[in-house]
Amino acid sequence: MPKKRSGGGLSPTQQAAKFLGVSVLAGAVLAGIALPAVGALGLAAKGSVESFDELPANMKTPPLSQRTTILDADGGQIATVYSRDRTVVPLKDISPYMQKAIVAIEDSRFYQHGAVDLKGVLRALNKNAQTGGVSEGASTLTQQYVKNVFIEEAGNDPTKVAQATQQTIGRKIRELKYAIQVEEELGKKKILENYLNITFFGQQAYGVEAAAQRYFSKSAKDLGVEQAALLAGIVQSPSRYDPVNDEAEATKRRNTVLQRMAAVGDISRAQAADAMKAPLGLKVSKPKNGCITAVKGAGFFCDYVREVFLTDPVFGKTKEQRAKIWNQGGLTIRTTMDPQSQKAAQRSIKDHVYKSDEVATAASIVQPGTGKILAMGQSRPYGFKKNETQINLSVDQSMGGGMGYQPGSTFKPIVAAAALEDGMAANKVYSSPYQMAYPSPVSACDGKRWVNDPNSPAKLQNENSSEVGPYDMREATAKSVNTYYVQMISDIGICPVTTMAKKMGVVRADGDKMPQVPSIALGTQEMSPLTMANAYATFASRGMYCTPIAMESVNRRVGDKTTSMEVPKSTCSRAMSENTADTINTLLKGVVEDGTGTKAGLGSRPSAGKTGTTDERYAAWFVGYTPNMAGAVWVGDPAHKRKMSGITIGGRSYGKVFGGEVPGPIWRDMMSGALEGKPVENFNSVHIPDSKPRDRGDGDGDGGRDDGGNGDNGDDGFIGGLIGGNNGGGGDEPTPSFSIPEGFIRGQGNGGNGNGGRSG
Questions:
Q1: pTM
Q2: Helices (H), 292-447
Q3: Contact 666, 361 (CB under 8 A)
Q4: Which of 138, 510, 650, 733 is in Cβ range 3.0-4.6 Å of 120 for a Cys bridge?
Q5: What is the pLDDT confidence band of residue 380, given thresholds at 50, 70 and 90?
């Protein structure tokens, strides 16, 4: 004897047999219910059996798309993102009124029939035959659930959605077979739970929990009878019965549901009457989706997390696989973002640069030795309005950023690290004249050479005419002497520098290769703030480079199960010896203590860093670090059009912007807040013998500055000082006295990349 299913009704075999019998008698029962002209699309019994039997035995149920929650390192919520706003809840967390209301209006005999309501089929068939159209349907709640599964599986593909909802006999047959399977396997209560979690309630709300929050700002378990009736009424036509846009129509529909609940005995007629008199009582919560919802100014960090998920193979072998998982959602992503550091970064940015300023700033903080991104922010907020943007100014183009910005003299420590690794002494002296032609030839990778044009040689000069060597490495770094560093790269060759840059994760923001030209020593290749912060973290961690990471963990909820996903891990490798890193740290401490970066100093907390101001002041930088944090601050025009001369930034006027004057204080305040309460750690300093090349006035021979008091020596002007600027205390810019061969510089807008010249 065929067994009965939980919840009562016929067995699957009995259901199929009765369905086929009705099909023979009616010509095409399903077609008659769903389509006009009952007999026109008649389906023979033989055809019905074959179509039915040819369907796969098991329906593939895709995981329901849900919202994804992005958290900071402490577990605080940053943002919620979703393809479909849905929070799956068990039946016990859904108001009994809601359960009764949806059954009453959609399928009042739900607990009495099987997957197909044969009485309903015949009733609808008779009614539709009389009207010659489709005036009544007979889909059970189980069949509706199956149809919703097909729609969910179609995702956001309009073609697949159309196929999942098309009014055809084939779809109805498939829907029926799977409804029979679902009834057998799940039972009534689980079907009801699944239906309430999958169905669309309008206003971007999928599932009853999202709907309750959207319309009443409460949980589904707390819905009252009139609220439940309103939501149940929406399901039939979310646009027609939308209470936000048509209160009168929604009220009529709600009252219809209340009457039906009374008619089937779920509530008394008196209860129904009282509820029908009540106002809708909406307390609408507007849909909030995406990184625009991020708190603590973390919209761009949120966007970076999304980009990592969509591009990293750890989350799926193909782009399509990763996108599918992201769109299905149900993820809880705990990130590396430190709320204290993020707050400090945003506060400092807000204090120093206004979102309406002609230029912008972007900043990133990284933890040395781990690659963890602790903070990421910028002055132009994440958004779509005036003075807002969706471009993440802190990252590379491939991760949602722009083309990058020339880092100027902040690239020089990378040249110094390459030279030290090559065996150069830390007190190496170069003649460092005020002005000179680029030395030629200069060795490059693969046995090639860069050759200056003898007919029109490219020249460079220092910031001020008073900057005349000889200089040793300590003083040249503190003062950011251009001619010293060009002589250095010409001496060791270009290849060791580009190799060191690669080891430190320093790449162009647009993904292009670093050119083999000596002008890279002056920071002519566009980089992102995150790249520079992470590169300097290599110095802070005594030579260990760690790839940047943004996620600590990812948990994925599918149905009622939660699993842990693998996340990208930081890969650490030695980029330079500890001694080289310690030497660079010693040199860059001098920049902050008695060089161009004094305004970035952290007081009693040891710090090191480097200023940078690029050609014609299109960008200014400060990149610095302590042993436990590294940060980069860039200021400039993302469009590379506004020169930072005669400009107001953050309500303060500047004749000329220097790396130590605007980015430096931003970095200082940001890092001071981020490091508050953190241990004070010291660098492993090394002794650098004093070369004492000659008496330098009031300089102490230990990296001191001369009487010029240069505000940002060698960091402003063309390519970090190729054309000089003023000396920080006023004065005129020197008149350029050199020419640049055609093709020597390649860049965006008026900024150069310096990848020209000749190689041979």
A1: 0.76
A2: 299-311, 319-328, 339-352, 412-421
A3: yes
A4: 138
A5: very high
Burial zone of 131 (CB within 10 Å; 0-12 exposed, 13-18 middle, 19+ buried): exposed
Both tokens assigned to 210: 């999202």
The pLDDT tens digits of the residues spanning 584-602 come to 999 999 888 878 888 988 9
Amino acid, single-letter form, for residue 625: Y
Tell me how far apart the alpha carbons of residues 346 and 367 are, in angstroms, rounded to a whole number.
18
What is the sign of the dihedral through the CA atoms of 394, 398, 400 and 406? positive
Q: What residues are paired with 527 via a beta bridge?
A: 405
Binned at pLDDT 50, 70 and 90, residue 257 comes out as very high
- Are 536 and 607 in contact, with CB atoms under 8 Å apart? no
Report how far apart, in Å, the C-alpha atoms of 652 and of each of 351, 513, 535, 731 are: 11, 38, 31, 20
CA–CA distance, 741 with 123 (Å, rounded to integer)? 89
Residues 6+ apart with CB under 8 A from 395: 300, 304, 307, 376, 401, 509, 528, 529, 530
Q: How far is 659 from 665, CA to CA, in rounded Å?
A: 10
Nearest-angstrom CA–CA distance, 5 and 12: 9
Residue with the bigger pLDDT between 200 and 19: it is 200
Among residues 295, 418, 283, 289, which one has the least CA distance to residue 346?
295
Q: pLDDT digit string (tens) for 429-463?
A: 999 999 999 999 999 998 999 999 989 999 998 87
Q: Which residues pair with 429 in a beta bridge?
A: 472
Q: Which of 439, 416, 437 is nearest to 428 (CA)?
A: 416
For residue 380, how many other CB atoms are within 10 A of its CB?
Answer: 24
The residues facing 636 across adjacent strands are 360, 619
Q: Which H or E run contains 759?
A: strand 758-759
Confidence of residue 62 (pLDDT cuts 50, 70, 90): low
> Which pLDDT belongs to residue 707?
32
pLDDT at 22: 40
User: CA-to-CA distance for 530 and 337, rounded, in angstroms?
Assistant: 13
As a residue count, the chain comes to 760
For residue 507, the Cα-to-chain-centroid distance in whole angstroms is 20
HSE (side-chain half, CA atoms, 13 Å) at 85:
19
